[in-house]
Amino acid sequence: DQQVKQNSPSLSVQEGRISILNCDYTNSMFDYFLWYKKYPAEGPTFLISISSIKDKNEDGRFTVFLNKSAKHLSLHIVPSQPGDSAVYFCASFSSGTSYGKLTFGQGTILTVHP
Amino acid sequence: DTAVSQTPKYLVTQMGNDKSIKCEQNLGHDTMYWYKQDSKKFLKIMFSYNNKELIINETVPNRFSPKSPDKAHLNLHINSLELGDSAVYFCASSQTDGGHEQYFGPGTRLTVT
User: Fold this and answer.
1) Measured distance CA(A37)–CA(A43) in Å, rounded
2) Can you give the pLDDT at residue B50?
3) Partner-chain contact B100 A49, CB within 8 Å
4) Which of A68, A76, A80, B34 has its CA 20 to 30 A from that of B16?
5) Confidence grade of residue B98 (pLDDT, cut at 50, 70, 90)
6) So what's the pLDDT on residue B38?
């Protein structure tokens, strides 16, 4: 039962353009959402998060949008840079259930071409 | 000055052996986790400890036993290793009264032959 899905295994973008990574979830109990970035042979690094009481959170070049009715979130990276090339995971959390349990999507490989 | 560290980074062993992976965090966090990333790249939580107390224990074979000697350490011991245990194991930590962000170690790639 895959509660968090990232349906695009990969995304290729030109440097300077916008990267949009998508994530869908099925569990309506999720109330906090996070994006992680992962380079090869390293652990995931926290990028940005959003609470279900918001529909947008921005941090520099990174913006996360949440559409609760559609159970969909997206990560926008503007402008994209070659150093952004990595695997991006979305993760969801329910404060009402198992403490600390993050449920991850399967990841999207982002490649930013110079 | 690594925040969450794991040893070893690579571990190659034979079926039936017993092995341990160590994790330490110097962030002052009170909750630590073990995740498994399988061949399909899914990251799935295995265990969570809060102040040395087991909080989350997902459906994991009892050959896997976490041990937390103190808040800063969470080790993973695996008995009678099987081929299917081959994966990358990540340790993570977070602060209970902080956000929900978890900070991950670099991972341990376990290969069982």
Assistant:
1) 9
2) 85
3) yes
4) B34
5) low
6) 87
Distance CA A2, CA A4 (A): 6
How many beta-carbon contacts under 8 Å exist across A and B?
Answer: 60
C-beta separation of A57 from A48 below 8 A = yes
Chain A residues close to B48, C-beta within 8 Å:
98-101
Give the whole-angstrom CA distance, residue B74 versus residue A97.
22
Closest-CA residue of A relative to B31 is A100
- Determine contact: A32 vs chain B, CB below 8 A: yes
Separation CA B105–CA B27 (nearest Å) = 12
Question: pLDDT of B74-95, one tens digit each?
Answer: 999 999 999 999 999 999 999 8
Alpha-carbon gap, residue B1 to B18, rounded angstroms:
30
Q: Walk along chain A (114 residues) and give the pLDDT tens digit of each residue.
A: 789 999 999 999 999 999 999 999 999 999 999 999 999 989 999 999 999 999 999 999 999 999 999 999 999 999 999 999 999 999 998 887 656 788 999 999 999 999
Interchain CB distance below 8 Å, B92 and A43: yes
- The verdict on a CB contact (< 8 Å) between A49 and B101 is yes
> What was the pLDDT predicted at A47?
96
